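LOG
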Amino acid sequence: MTMNRHVLMDSLPVKLASRLFWKTKLFRHSLDSMPYDKLLKSIEIKWPMITGTGVYEVPAQTPRGIFDPAFRITCWRGNSYPTVIYHHGNNERPFNRWPLVRNTFHDIFLGDKRPFPANLIVVRAPFHRSFWQYLKYMGQLSTFSTLMAVSVLVIENLRNYAASKSCGVVVSGISLGGWVTNLHRAYFNSADLYLPLLAGTTPADVFTHSVYRKLTDQKARKNPRALENALDFKDAFAARQTNNVFPLLARFDQLIRYEKQKASYGNIPVAVIERGHVTGSMAASELRRHIQDHIALIPAKNVNK
């Protein structure tokens, strides 16, 4: 890979973080994990009564204890509009907008002067209230895989809500959120469109072969099969034959490696931006265009509800 600013902006922060957080590396405690199909059946979520825009907490009882996902209905333009359910990237705070702190939901959907032509809902993954909370709980591989499954179930309940309003439903997300997007398609495939950004269907590669492996505990790096068995879902994804997923990857991405993740989609066409993971996450206008161009494919619905 040619060294350029996209590569450097992915690599340098990870190398620095690996030195700062050497005592709290990922999956340092255990590599045990249930497969997704069993996880999804083992989780019970307490669904709130939705009364309009605002933040809703969704306590989830899991084999790993109580998890704390949430979602925010940011705007509801009307039942004749499609609904975008968006899942943030790793270690984002999707409900907060602070200077110098990444918030891809805000940047993509709210950062433009032109209103985005959809109802907008953003999901907060478990353990994403703070950076320190995330570090504390990501010592177990099973916590991470359960986090993914919990987010999938929150999205499915939101999809049901949006569908009850007769709106077309789009599921999208970036990085971690892109994995969740694809995982929802693999096990539910109930949305009209899936728009994963900077993600594929083999998450284990990020922790075992990308530059991000420097943040992964040594015992996990030495046992890549355990991570693959727990996190990858390429076969379940490929079993879905519907033409409803339109991925976007970054050519110079050092975390979500382009060639590896492109191959994980099989014959599905993949859009490409000439950026890395960090610079791709910052390319709000390109990401917005990808989403907006595709939701335009959903037929308008005449709704009187």
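LOG (cont.) second protein
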Amino acid sequence: MTALPLVAALAWTAALIADKGPLGSAGALLTGVGLVIIAAVAVVGMTVTGGRWAHRLALVSVGAGLTIATIRPIDGFWVAATTASVISGSTLFLPRLTRGIRKLPAATGPPQSAVVLTLALLTIPFLLGVLSGRSATWAILVVGLTAPLVAFLYARVIPGGLLGVRVAWPLLALSLAPVLTLVAGILTALSALAVLAIAWQPEVKTSFHPPHETGSTYPIPPELTPKDILDAARLDDRGRPK
């Protein structure tokens, strides 16, 4: 049941392979890849952590699939994918599934800004693919496919991940925005600015590089040590081996 959003995403990807509709090859690629990434992360999050963010992301993946339904021609693939999306969306509200979702944020979980940053980067390929349509170019592919890559590097605390979300991807997106179509360029520029605003918050760095404290030990005088501990360690009342 939890995996149904991913099944629906794969169904829509197959539908786009069969008929791209108003999307070009590059646009369909970004849309399909982006939808599968969103659904896969949501399914893993619900299964492993039971996170509220994962449940909401699963709802986003269902809505994204139904968005494709509004722009793609109706055929057998459309009917199958739409049916999968409707069933998937319905099951996300069943008590059997929602019981496994936390009602409150995890006390030891990452800060909200770090979660929002990662999820925002994951949705960029889908948004660019849908909005670019047949005008999608290599520049859109570069911007769209590198967004989830830097999100993965950051989320997995891989070297270069923090630099990727704070500097590399925003600069790449801003530099390529002028060569995109008007709508895609505006979305790319706004996405880069939003990522910059979130990524430079202190909590984002703390999530990637948690503070470390060097521990220290202090010897306890034998006179202050309980006798049962000294006996267990086979030491006399002056701390010497018996």
